[in-house]
Amino acid sequence: MSKRQLLLLSSSNYHGHEFLQFARDWITDFLKKNNVSKILFIPYASTEPDSYTKYTEKVAKPLKEFGFDVEGIHESRDPVEAINNASAIFIGGGNTFHLLKTLYDKRIVEAIRSRVLDNGIPYIGSSAGTNVATVSINTTNDMPIVLPPTFYALQLLDFNINPHYLDPITDDKHRGETRAQRINEFHHINSSPVLGLREGSALLVDGDNATLIGHTKAILFCRNEDPQEFEPDSDLSFLVSSS
Amino acid sequence: MSKRQLLLLSSSNYHGHEFLQFARDWITDFLKKNNVSKILFIPYASTEPDSYTKYTEKVAKPLKEFGFDVEGIHESRDPVEAINNASAIFIGGGNTFHLLKTLYDKRIVEAIRSRVLDNGIPYIGSSAGTNVATVSINTTNDMPIVLPPTFYALQLLDFNINPHYLDPITDDKHRGETRAQRINEFHHINSSPVLGLREGSALLVDGDNATLIGHTKAILFCRNEDPQEFEPDSDLSFLVSSS
Ligand SMILES: [Ca+2]
Ligand SMILES: [Ca+2]
């Protein structure tokens, strides 16, 4: 039985709410349940030069209000040591390619994986931070502004997630692929299931149990099958139990 | 002075038109000007298994109606030889990552580049086929379903294009990045200009001259500058003259 403790948000923003506020109760319950008061934040999804401090402050503000302390990994001289000393990890959104490349550049992929899977420290991901928690970033929506050494990611789960999942717009005149068509292209090549998390929802993973939480349904795409909708509070353990 | 002859379509579909029909006159004029009656079609952007013949037939139908013969590169035993014998090349849309990876897998990147830049054979690209004609695929909208060995592409031009360019939707409740924000992230890392080609438009390149053609304006993003709009028929030679 896995020790993993994951809270994977589709996004940090949800229409009508301030930054991270829609997830206040989820974050608070998740960290309290795990007896954590301090979080190591990883701002590497931010692409703007010299923005890691600003991004960390942006995240620290609501989290402080929720009762937690936040430190940015860029404040440490040794990122691996920072991971090894962390009692919880939060990876925020931005550009998934930039994030994954920087995780590899800083050589912290294995350290994070080990802390989460072997030591059971809680992991929060949002958007790009949710993408990298899965098998691979093959189902990100982001623009490939940099080339990571591989698309394989932290593999805290052995399926894929598509965050910010978007339903097709009725009568859309645009001829680019819909999100479902893009995921279908993924399934032409790959067999991993893809969970489409709409904004305002999250996947909560406790060992081998998983629950969909939040305000919106999720949609699951399995290769050669019709997509399946799941209501909030659905038990999605069947997705994680084998991983 | 470059010999290159390029017709780069934002998309193969345009609202209210059958497949490729909106570009009928452009394709016809472009190929006639270059005395071409036969086109080698490259269907590698298609991700569906065993779909190359179907895709080639789909493209051949309107092109035949316009007066041109089409052969699929997959019909040749040797793709490099097919390129070297081609009198014109058309690369269609689909998934840009799959397309670029297959161009490298089949070892035809250099052959195409040489035929177009050294021998001046006409190149038509649409969507993904337009992406790969530029410096790199860093500004594709597609999902990264496979990992190519590099994001560098055919480099028939030395700037980037974003096909299917989309203006932000007013009052959008979705919190994913807008297209302009994604291109801004690209410019945090890269300095290459990005031409956003809206559906229904194309870039026509004749040696060192370039013209925007079609039904919609194009938008140019240069690093650290405000984006600039160009009307149809604008002279965009300043973008290509240095390349
Ligand atoms: Ca993003
Ligand atoms: Ca595409």
UniProtKB/TrEMBL annotation, chains A, B:
Alphabetical UniProt keywords: Cytoplasm, Dipeptidase, Hydrolase, Protease, Serine protease
Its predominant location is cytoplasm
Q: Give an example GO biological process.
A: proteolysis
**EC number(s) per UniProt?**
3.4.13.21
Q: Which reaction does it catalyse?
A: Dipeptidase E catalyzes the hydrolysis of dipeptides Asp-|-Xaa. It does not act on peptides with N-terminal Glu, Asn or Gln, nor does it cleave isoaspartyl peptides
Q: What is this protein called?
A: dipeptidase E
CDD domains found in the cross-reference section: GAT1_Peptidase_E
Q: Name one Pfam family in it.
A: Peptidase_S51
Does the record's keyword annotation contain Transport?
no
Coiled-coil region: none
Concerning PANTHER family, the annotation shows: ALPHA-ASPARTYL DIPEPTIDASE, PROTEASE S51 ALPHA-ASPARTYL DIPEPTIDASE
Q: Which InterPro entries match?
A: Class_I_gatase-like, Peptidase_S51
- List the GO molecular function terms: dipeptidase activity; serine-type peptidase activity
What family, per the record?
Belongs to the peptidase S51 family.
Cellular component annotations (GO), alphabetically ordered: cytoplasm
Q: Does the keyword Plastid apply?
A: no
Q: What does this protein do?
A: Hydrolyzes dipeptides containing N-terminal aspartate residues.
Cell compartment(s), UniProt? Cytoplasm
